[in-house]
Structures are given as C-alpha cells and as structure tokens.
Amino acid sequence: MSEREKESFMKKIIAAALFVLLVVSLLAGCTITRCPVECGIENIYLLTNTEKYRKDEEISPTPETKLTATLAKNEGEGMQFVYKPEKAQTNVRVTVSDFVLDGGTEKIEDVTVYYQHYIYCAAAYTEYKTLQRVGYYPDILIPINDDCSDLNGIDVEANANQGFWITVWSAKDQTAGVYRGEVTLETDGGEKRVIPVEITVWDFSVPEEPSFDAAYSIYWFESSVSYKEAYEYALRYRLNGSFTPSVRSQDYDADTMAKKTAEYLAEHPGVSCFMPSGYTAEYFNALEKYGILDKCFTYYFDEPGNYYSINKKMSETFAWAHALNPNVKNMVTTASRDTITDVDIWCGIWSSHDCDEPTVRDRISEGYEMWWYGCVGPKSPYPTYHIQDDLMTSRLVHWMQKDWGFTGNLYWVTDMNKRCE
Question: What pLDDT is recorded for position 416?
C-alpha cells in the first residue's frame, strides 16, 4: 500500500469514528430529551413560581430533581410542586424538614406550607374563550403546617393535578449562603416522595420601606380574624390596606387620630400610603405636623365618566381639599385629562391612553404622581391579576411599573370573595 493509499485509508477510519461518535452523542441527547421524567421524581412536577396549571391540564415532564428558591435577606419567596398520582390517593400530607445552612447550623426558621385550592372559572370573556381557559384553576392557598397542621391531609383524584406551595422568609440578619432540606409527601396508600430543597440567600437585604405605593384595599372586611391581623398579614407582603389599624373605626379627635397613625407608621415602616380618617383642616394639618401627610391620599371618585358636570364636580371637590391643606394629595382613578383640576395623582387602568412610558414621564415632569391599576379589564394579552391568566403576567406588571416610572399600584379589593358574573 502506497503512502497516499495509507493516508486515504486513515482519513476514512477517522471519518467513520467521528460519525459513530456523533451518532452516539445524538442518541444520548435524544434519550435525555424524550425521557426527562426519568431524571425527576415519579408523579411529581417541580414548577417555577410563575407557572399555573388547571386541575386536568397536562404538564410537560420536568427534569428538575430539587425545589429551589433564591432570595435576599428580609424577603419571602415561594416554591411549588404538583403531585399527579396515577391512582386516587387519600390523606395526602406534606411536611418539610429544617432548612440548614451548608457547613453550619443556622436555619431558615420562617416556613409556611400550603396546598392549592382549585376553583372553577368559566370563560366569561371573549379573550378567555378564545384561549379556551375554562376549568378548575389553583387560586387559594390553604396553610397546612404549624398552627394549621390539622388541615394537612387532602384526597387527590387519579390523574388530577394537586399543587403545593412553600413560602420561605429570610430574617434581616440571615447569614448569606445555601440552605438545604427536604419536602416529604406521603399518602395513606403508601406512596412517599422526598424532594430535595436548595435555598440561596443573597448577601444583601431588602429594605423595610417599599419603593412604591401599594394601595391594596381591605375594604369590606368580614372575617374571623381581626382587621389588624388581616392588615399586617398583607403588610408583610408589602401591601397596604386602606386605613391603618390604629385608627380604623375609632372616634378620636383630629390630633389624636394623626398622632396614633404616625406612631403606627413609625412602628411599621413598610406602610407606604393610607387613606384619610377625617376630612378637616385640623386633621390634615395634624398629619403634616407629625410628618406623614405625604403618605396620605384622598380617593373621592372612582372611575368617573368624562363629561362636563362630573369634571366640574371633581375639580371643585379637589380644590376644596387643597383649601383645607394645599399639600393634600388627591388621587382619581382615571387617565389624565385637562378637564379636571387640582389632581395630584392620576391612576389610570393599565390599558388607558396615558399608561405608556413617554406620557408617564411627561406627567411626572409636570409635577404629577402617576399610579395605575388593573381590574376586570384589561384582559389578556395585557398583564393581569386574573385567575385564568398566566401567573407570569402579574409579575410583569411590576417590572413594567418600575421601567415606566409609575410610583403606585392600586388594587380593589383584597377581601371580596364573592363570584362576580
């Protein structure tokens, strides 16, 4: 065999070897792609906290083998997984171990486990009919550990999704690092699943004072818990009820009302805004004396029409409030319009004509505050808080708010649990 023939032969051998290697690599890749569930945990789907699936919805196999969360100090973060048994299971229980710092003994002490309660949503609007978003959606989170451990045990139908949610809260002085533990699911049918958990705490702290106003009304309050408990539960998530608990439904004089509100705000720096408990010059002046008038906003009119008589009435009312104290902040839930005067805060719906970055910045440069809100409308494809919408969109709202310069978000109402047709 000549040297040239030897060289040609070797090239063919090398080419054949490379081809075999390529085929093996592709087959290995195909194996991982086609059967990712083998890398996971049987009947368990580990989801991000921006996903939502109906009770009967197919979930793509998830290759993850552990629940993860990343958060700063003084922050809460959620993790979720779905259990979908092939056979019906009774008394399905979920427990968590301690989450312990790698190489140490420190723990994340504040952990709440929930099961997801599903409610039926019909496609009441064209947008959701088009998207075929009808069925049982996860909505209410029912706590099942610690004081609520008597609720830890539910029945799950065969081939039905049952979601569980775990919220961890880091302390202000939590040591940064990786914390590990386990979540265990057990049933009376003998099924047991153990899910590793990895929580990363970053080495910085979320400040107590929020970066924007979050006016989430607690308005029609009817509950077995006190208003104070409900208000401070929301406050933990950096949401503000309408009135501070220290003065709600109390018959104090103007100065006492303002002083008690100021004392509450000093003890709870997370309060970013509140509605007035009185409408007199004495009250507003007292709020100013105690240094908290800038956190107070009036809410006289809600979604007013745009015609002469109502615009005139609003302008007169807002002027009256400014006559009581010129630093009172009047908020109105409408897109900005030149036909209303003495407005300090414009609060248009997310889809209104001035809820875009250039207009927001123009209004801010003119001295206005800009808030916004979502309600029954807008609907998908706008970001919403709607149960039938993708869970990611409720997070997009706040990134858009930050990006465009809105300084407040209004939500009406947190404690209405009736079906609205």
Answer: 73
Query: Considering only CA atoms, which of 238, 193, 219, 198 is closest in space to residue 84?
Result: 193
Contacts of 307 (CB under 8 A, 6+ apart): none
pTM of the model: 0.85
Q: Look at residue 222 in the predicted model and tell me its pLDDT.
A: 66
**Alpha helices (H) in 268-345, listed in sequence order:** 281-289, 308-324
Q: How far apart are CA 56 and CA 84, in angstroms?
A: 10
Give the C-alpha separation, 371 to 384, whole Å: 16
At 299-325, the pLDDT tens digits run 999 999 999 999 999 999 999 999 999
Alpha carbons 204 and 39: distance in angstroms, whole number: 34
Amino acid of residue 52: K
| Short-list 113, 194, 183, 118, CA closest to 149 | 113
Compute the radius of gyration of the chain from its Cα atoms: 28
Q: Are 199 and 102 in contact (CB under 8 A)?
A: no
The beta strand positions in 10-106, using DSSP E, are: 44-47, 67-73, 76-83, 89-96, 100-101
Which residue, 74, 98, 73, 75, is CA-closest to 177?
73
CA–CA gap between residue 193 and residue 404 (Å, rounded): 45
Angstrom distance (rounded) from CA 219 to CA 67: 36
